[in-house]
Amino acid sequence: LNEVGTGPATAIAVATVRERLSASGIAVDDSQAQEVLAFSKEPEVGSFYRGLPLGELEPMLAFYPRWRA
Amino acid sequence: MTATSEVVGAVTNAGDDSLPTVVEAAAAIRAKTLSPVELTKTVLERIERIDPLIDSYVDVYAEGALAQARAAEEAVSRGESLGPLHGVPVALKDLYDVAGFPTLAGSAVREGHVAQVDSEVTTRLLAAGAIIVGKVVTHEFAFGVVSAPTRNPWDPATIPGGSSGGSAAAVAARLCLAAMGSDTGGSIRIPAGLTGLTGLKPTYGRVSKRGVAALSWSLDHTGPLTRTVADTAIVFQSIAGYDPLDPCSIDVPVVDVLSGLESGVAGLRIGVPTNFFFDLATPEIGDAVHTALAVLAAAGATLVEVAVPDVELSAEAVTTIVGVEAAAIHQEELRTRPQDYTADTRRRLMAGELISGTTYVNAQRVRRLIVAGFREALSDVDIIATPTLPVTAPAFDAETAELGGRQVEVMPVLSRLTSPANATGLPALAVPCGFAGNGLPVSLQLIGRPFDESTILRAGQAYQAQTDWHTRQPQLSK
């Protein structure tokens, strides 16, 4: 789990989580938003992928039989 | 027909608290020395007596199973052609549809659900003669590795793993002869490994997922958990093959894995990874796996050191993809009845909602790197052998486990070494290879080339021919 602090940055992050979920039709309170924030690693993960040498690689399609010759 | 207890004792020489393996039972039924009815009654009696200790079943189809068993017995009497699983009691993870019965997937969200038709695997098991004895516990929607309330039969203070924890506990405790599981990041091999069983995640698309509640379309696999490799092979042979109604199914012919099962490992090249897989395993797990590899080498295999490029990216990619795909699958219920999910699943699904489209696509791009890494590693070897798990079964209420000297959330610890085969879709087999000092099972993982289940099964069978870990039975009594 991510460390979730109590400072102003965390309050903004919690509010952002609430707003994003609310905008997609999911209502949560601050406490629930904080729990989701603890599970969410989107900023770090997004940055992690951007740092990889993915070049021109195309994504695997979800239903593509990946090992077909 | 002879009473089951006598036959079981004769067949296994393991006393009154045992059950025959799938292979033993099928052979005895065919030879008319074991009654399917008596075998099913024995299983049902064991469930009633022992399952309260481990809570592996969510639903027992006693009446239906006995009716099936009577029909199976009559077919034997009439001299009919019998399927490979004729009269064998099998349990299904509570994600698999059985017509007329609920598939609750471990969740209040599915309350009131009744399946209209059998899953394709259910259909194939029944066609092979299996008796469906009931449904077993899954972690809610297979989104976790704990499988509460099920306990590990080797130590009820520990988890059986998951998400196919009920399947594993039921087989390990001899409450069925085989069980079906599903595997998105390791959910067949993790519980198999933690409970001393054999578990197979076939190649992606090899076994139908139609009628099995989905967690993540591009990562989900279905497969069996059993006590022995031979049992896994016979179940796999019965369920594998193209399903034109499953969009993930692949039309590649299934070879006869049973005919070559005893061929041994002479000439096989087994890759031993020089990176990642052994890095954070406890020393005794590393030792047990290396000892297992020495057994295979003594049986004629050649051990070859291999690097598996980019494999360390698997966990992140799988976590991202599962998060998004699960959130998509559950998007309606998450908005209309969020209170019906457990807090843990609800948090994970909401976290999935927050992952950006770019991140999801990048995770799918990363899979190409991981696949390329395995292609390279498998270009020189037939199998890659690794530990299945870096640790033994965590305590039932543990939120973290120690990995490389750090406390890490249980799920990434347990799926660390299994998720690469989900990211790639490669077949992978978990085989018990010893016990740690705490008395809990240790497991060897054999990862094969695409659609080459037969080679990993052959290697697993060769290993079990030389060892007896798979014959050990947890002591449970009531």
Write structural notes for this entry.
With 69 residues, chain A is mainly alpha-helical. Chain A has helices at residues 8-23, 30-39, 42-50. In chain A, helix 1 packs across helix 2 (30-39). Helix content of chain B is 38%, strand content 15%. In chain B, strand 12 (428-435) and strand 13 form a beta hairpin. The model of chain B is unreliable at 1-15 (pLDDT under 50).
Could you provide a short overview of the structure?
Chain A is an all-alpha fold and 69 residues long. Helices cover 51% and strands 0% of the residues of chain A. Chain B is α/β, with parallel strands linked by helices.
Rg of chain A, please? 17 Å
How is the quaternary structure best described?
A: heterodimer
Number of distinct beta strands of chain A:
0
* Total count of strands of chain B: 13
Class by alpha and beta content of chain B: alpha/beta
Q: Approximately how much beta-strand content do the residues of chain B carry?
A: 5-15%
User: What is the gyration radius of chain B calculated from CA atoms?
Assistant: 21 Å
Our measurement of the CA-to-CA distance between the termini of chain A, rounded to an integer number of angstroms, reads 40 Å
* Whole-number mean pLDDT of chain B: 95
Q: Runs of chain A with pLDDT <50, length 5+?
A: none
Percentage of β-strand residues of chain A: under 5%
Spell out the helices and strands of chain A N to C. HHH
Summed up, the helix count of chain A is 3
Q: How many angstroms separate the termini of chain B?
A: 28 Å
Helical content of chain B (DSSP H or I, runs of 4+) = 25-40%
How is the main sheet of chain A built?
none
